[in-house]
TrEMBL record:
<dbReference type="InterPro" id="IPR051677">
    <property type="entry name" value="AfsR-DnrI-RedD_regulator"/>
</dbReference>
<dbReference type="GO" id="GO:0003677">
    <property type="term" value="F:DNA binding"/>
</dbReference>
<dbReference type="InterPro" id="IPR001867">
    <property type="entry name" value="OmpR/PhoB-type_DNA-bd"/>
</dbReference>
<dbReference type="InterPro" id="IPR016032">
    <property type="entry name" value="Sig_transdc_resp-reg_C-effctor"/>
</dbReference>
<protein>
    <submittedName>
        <fullName>SARP family transcriptional regulator</fullName>
    </submittedName>
</protein>
<feature type="domain" description="OmpR/PhoB-type">
    <location>
        <begin position="534"/>
        <end position="641"/>
    </location>
</feature>
<comment type="similarity">
    <text>Belongs to the AfsR/DnrI/RedD regulatory family.</text>
</comment>
<feature type="DNA-binding region" description="OmpR/PhoB-type">
    <location>
        <begin position="534"/>
        <end position="641"/>
    </location>
</feature>
<dbReference type="GO" id="GO:0000160">
    <property type="term" value="P:phosphorelay signal transduction system"/>
</dbReference>
<dbReference type="InterPro" id="IPR005158">
    <property type="entry name" value="BTAD"/>
</dbReference>
<keyword id="KW-0238">DNA-binding</keyword>
<dbReference type="Pfam" id="PF03704">
    <property type="entry name" value="BTAD"/>
</dbReference>
<dbReference type="InterPro" id="IPR011990">
    <property type="entry name" value="TPR-like_helical_dom_sf"/>
</dbReference>
<dbReference type="GO" id="GO:0006355">
    <property type="term" value="P:regulation of DNA-templated transcription"/>
</dbReference>
<dbReference type="InterPro" id="IPR036388">
    <property type="entry name" value="WH-like_DNA-bd_sf"/>
</dbReference>
Amino acid sequence: MVLEYAETVFGFNQVYWLDCSSPCFLRDLDGESIASGLLDATEPAFLAVFEDVPLLDGARVDAFCALLDTLLDRGCEVIVTCTPLCDAFAAERDRMVLFANDLLLSNDEIDFLRTPAERDETPANRVPRARRVPACAWGDGKNAAFLCGVLTEELPCQMLAVLFVLLCLDSGPLSSVERIAHADAEALSFIAAAHAYVGVDVAQRSFRCAGFPIGDVAEAFAGKLEDIASGAGGVGAAQLAADVASTLLASGNAERACEVARLFLPAAERAIWLEEHARDLERVGCLMRARGLYAATPPEVFSASAHVAQAVRCALLGENVAACVAARRAIACAPSVVERAIVQAVQCACSVGEASEQAAARARDVCAVGIEAECGDELRDIAMAVEALDAPSSGVELARAWLDATTDRALSDSALYAAALLLGRLDEADAGAQEWADVAAMVAREATARFGDAGSLSLPCALAAAAFQQLVDNGVLAMPPLDAACAVAAAARKRMLLEQRIQCEAARTAALERRLVRDKTHPDTFRCASVGSDMALRTPPRLTVNLFGGLEVFMGDRRIDPNLLMREKVRALLALLVVNQGHDLSRDRIMKLLWPDSHMERARNNFYATWSRLRTALSMPDGTCPYLIKRQYGIRLDASLLSSDVAELDRVCRALLFNRPGRGGWGHLFSQIEDSFSSDLLPGDEGCELLDDLRSDCRTRLVDALVTASGKLVEAGEVRQGLWFARAALSRDKSREDAYAAVMRAQIASLQRSAALETYFSCRKFLSNDLGIDPSAETMRLYHSIIDAQEEVA
């Protein structure tokens, strides 16, 4: 605006621009040389612009006001720009003050750069005040840079806390800001006048920001949250972020709440928040974000109920494998009877074939125990759902039993899930619709009552109501339909769930496509089969080989009979081929590794016998074995058809060794390591020299990566995760001095000096007793740094 004024009125003639952020300005102001320099060198009429005047003390304020009076007395025009906190010139005569609200864009200026479609979609007179800030309306979308520029102003902590809460909440009543940030009327009035982009309306007691993504807010406020939290009533940064996230969730903005929790809460506090609000997130249908929040947190900080909630989320999203993983974690945490029943229901729904039958049998047993112990109606609802999952043909009888268990009471969420399941299978039953009328009537009554009370439907109620409405629309049930608004709300909630399922499926498909692209571009892909053969025209199922924690081999979804792989040499040969990941191994080398003391002829006979057994185990029903490739001098597994946890270990180790941790650290990688690589490679096959070497090599690579990752995390400020990685490294190999040192570094960074001393003494004891050597200079340096710090404190 100043540039435009200088050009329009003065044509840039006789305009003098002073950069007041330069130290030279303060020097010349103290020397009283600015006025004489301007008046001696120019004609009387000119424009003087003082840009970015800093905060001045009392003496300099008087000197600057005297300078302005001198220039104004000579007929000059003066423009001063500064931040609101630096405006100490209220006593200056003949001044006109322009605040941020005076510089907002008009309707014509709003429409200047917009397309006709954008103007039709949102007329200029409907653009909120916060979006009329020129930097927001005409900016290039660099919101984080804009907010970082705003924070260069040295605002008090209380003001920064209010700004942080406003930007995170984005819109709502001012009472929420007053409660969370302890904002007073003076602070809100100042922000309303000076920071128009947050859209505070003191008269209406509300605010509506320009719409900044949480990621941009996090980038701008990174590293400042602890200081900011001190201005919000002295609460900690974690408590401030948790209050913001809870307020967002209560106001209906669940996805933004999850983002706040993910970006601003440490892992332990994040787990607590997710566990406290798991049921609320599920009821509003926020599954994807909650699932991601769980995945970004190390699993060991969760309780059984949090794992149960994740299992339900994944089951609703159609992610059967992830649901079963969360269910297994829940069972390992000693869940309650009700939680165990829910877990078994999830396993029953998400398993296939024999696994489904076993899960259903276990679920029935648990539910029977719970019902006998009178654990409540909710458990009976779950029991009915489990039975329906296991035996859909008997749906009528099960529905009647479920109806008897839920008579004369409001339906719980699990009851509504069961109702949605049973009503969804109604057209598959042999009985007439009249057998289901009572169940359907209860669903209709519950949905109508809930929608009448709250004006919305929870996810389980919406799924049951949508199933009921579909049956009515299809003529299966001769009953009055739901109220139009209630039916629309149910359909919208169900559509939201379907959209999230589509997103999950798209993510899985994208991962599969990336794997296929990799397979197709593999240099040996053309060797998989001869051109024109049947094998080239069809794709065999993928071979999945898991070696860590025990041998598991799957051909597609079918698990290969473990009895076919009972022989130690067969397992060792398979492990060697998997670890080699598709590269050729010469037969001579294999024979030396597997039978080092045997004569060459005997070793050759043993090799062909072992090869034959392995080929039999990996053969398809038609007798072909596309996975094993034998050439004149070497053999290998076809990498384009192979998936293994060894390859996943390599990927994780490369990420830890060569990447830098992002915001929030490497919680997902730590979770994967603890889930998939907590045990050694084929731990039951001790004594085989080849497997012992492979096992040791994998353990060494993993410990190297964990130690390196710990150092990177400590340097990046993720001290707690750095300690997790260091302890994980030490637990896997207590003979590694660098693992002891990594634990000590993380403990020192966490201010756990006594624990660091205990780690040092454990290291010294091991080195002295078992190896007969002293600790290295680096370990001694860490030890002395602890001692020196204690002496300084003393």
